[in-house]
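// run 5 | inverse folding | seed 20
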């Protein structure tokens, strides 16, 4: 099997997984939510009503549908050679398509942010409670996982230093990747601190649910950073050994794995059955 044929199989999986399988799981989750936690009984959960919720889900479904069709068009153009450069696939092609595939997820993030803002505006409670237990990092992520995150970065820097013959050059790919990763790690710690110590986005959310959801998000950050570090280490190694032809395949596999450890992890572990929806009832005074 040629490298092009392997890429086409892997890219096919990217189309199905990211624009069909996971979106269908999100839509099924939304349908289950609307059916079992109705706007009449849980009005605080739908600050703009069921109509707005349904329209948002239809937009999400439409964008994913367009991306699904576009993926097969791209695959056909690759097969006919119209998207090949000297018989090879551009390594950034899977990434470019991935960015389009992530637009629906970003739409849902914006949707959730807007709903949380409306919840705060409509929250008319005069008496509120707060969690008095101090928030600590170890309540959300284990020291072992955090240690792996740090070790993954140190390992990458060591590899880059080795491939550069133990010299430091600001013009080398290893140095540039090390800086990019360091910025990513800094953003991770900043976002994690904001999630842990910042105010709740959802004013009604139960403290137990907040602890669980924030912990899942931070662990997802950790898995993503480790995966990115491994991917960049492989990229640096392959390029140093003249194996650039395999990069489109590696890129597509990495992007699919990234969604698996982020969206897939959240869907599998943040189940609707485990969430306290009583706080969204019409006459609930819980926080």
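// decoded
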């Amino acid at each position: 099997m040629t490298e092009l044929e392997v890429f086409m199989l892997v890219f096919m999986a990217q189309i199905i997984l990211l624009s069909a399988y996971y979106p269908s799981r999100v839509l099924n989750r939304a349908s289950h939510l609307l059916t079992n936690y109705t706007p009449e009984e849980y009005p605080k959960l739908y600050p703009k009503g069921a109509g707005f919720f349904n329209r948002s889900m239809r937009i999400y479904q439409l964008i994913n549908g367009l991306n699904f069709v576009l993926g097969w068009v791209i695959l056909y153009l690759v097969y006919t050679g119209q998207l090949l450069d000297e018989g090879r696939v551009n390594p950034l092609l899977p990434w470019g398509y991935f960015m389009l595939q992530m637009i629906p997820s970003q739409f849902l993030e914006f949707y959730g942010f807007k709903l949380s803002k409306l919840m705060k505006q409509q929250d008319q409670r005069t008496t509120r409670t707060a969690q008095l237990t101090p928030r600590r990092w170890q309540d959300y992520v284990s020291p072992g996982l955090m240690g792996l995150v740090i070790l993954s970065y140190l390992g990458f820097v060591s590899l880059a230093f080795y491939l550069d013959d133990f010299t430091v050059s600001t013009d080398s790919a290893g140095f540039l990747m090390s800086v990019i990763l360091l910025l990513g790690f800094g953003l991770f710690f900043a976002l994690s601190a904001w999630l842990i110590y910042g105010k709740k986005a959802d004013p009604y959310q139960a403290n137990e649910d907040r602890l669980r959801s924030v912990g899942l998000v931070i662990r997802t950050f950790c898995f993503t950073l480790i995966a990115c570090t491994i991917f960049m280490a492989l990229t640096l190694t392959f390029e140093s050994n003249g194996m650039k032809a395999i990069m489109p395949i590696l890129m597509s596999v990495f992007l699919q794995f990234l969604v698996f450890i982020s969206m897939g992890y959240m869907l599998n572990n943040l189940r609707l059955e485990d969430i306290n929806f009583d706080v969204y009832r019409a006459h609930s005074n819980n926080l």
